Amino acid sequence: MDSIIPIQSYVAVYYNILLLVVFIVYVTSFQTPIYDSDNLKRKNTFGFFIFVFVLFYMGLRPLNFRFGDMVVYAKSFNDYSLGIYPKIIKDYVFNEFMRICSVWMSLSTFFLVCAFLYIFPLYIVSKRLFKEYWFYAFFMLVISFSFWAYGTNGIRNGIATSLFLLGISSNKKVFTVILILLALSFHKSMIIPSIAYIISLFYLDTRKYIYFWLLCIPISLALGSFLENFFLILFGEEDQRVSVYLGEFNEKSEGAILKLGFRWDFLIYSASGVFAGWYFIVKKKFDDKFYKQLFAIYLIVNGFWILIIRANFNNRFAYLSWFMLAIIILYPLLKNHYFAKQHQLIGKIILIYFMLTYFLDYISNPLA
To answer: Residue 315 in contact with residue 266, Cβ under 8 Å?
Structure first.
């Protein structure tokens, strides 16, 4: 898994290539209407390039501590290849998937397959939902905050979120159920979006969900520590991962740099999706059942995260809603015509959205 790109520059190269593409997309959004046939042909080409680039650049990255839990996955994979099995197996399907892969492929191929399982469902979702405009949605998903992290660090979680999104975007309920169960078997944290999905099947009052989300903020400010302890007990302190995320944490043991406390910056980032959903559904009367359901899921899951926003690694809980954010923001703009210069607006949204990612994931990241 050697790379011609120095490891200290690996992430920088990735983000700066995306930055170049973002500027190209931004500039071209001022040149033609979004529905222009030449524009769509160029975006199809761009989309294919982005898919191939991200897949292989992410999937064939060198094994290094800079990619967080990648080294942990590598150790588990090598143990399986030697016939050494863990005594306690959690997220059984993923571990069985890893065991089977260890028999038939190399470690580098395994990580490439994981990247494919993470990225390809997003490509399918974008094609399924947006047809000829799929590039814009797929590109927004790829440039999302923490997208890179969940393809290189929180690998199981990343794959699970993509499978979940693929499932709920299907019109065939059998496939929806199968993919949600598969997502759960890859990472049990998907129980939270799964419960939110079930709730959204029976209740779709957007205003009430927004009120719930807003109410979570003062509740968290007033009862944050109590809620964290409550969920720690609820999930069980014997689960080491939950204990680390919600309970006490030894920073030196993880070699991590954490920013704890009430994350107003993350809250503002999350609020961009809340504003988008409110603006289109409530103000503009955008009536689309899938969008309303997706927005409801987002509000429920993000509201839960707000309740435990002070937790260690709270971004891992936040990502259970953030993986939907790009679609929440862009969906109505790719379905209806609202503004005279809508293509330009989409270009501006993509630029601003990525610049947040560029700052939070790259500029402010000491390991980038």
So the answer is: yes
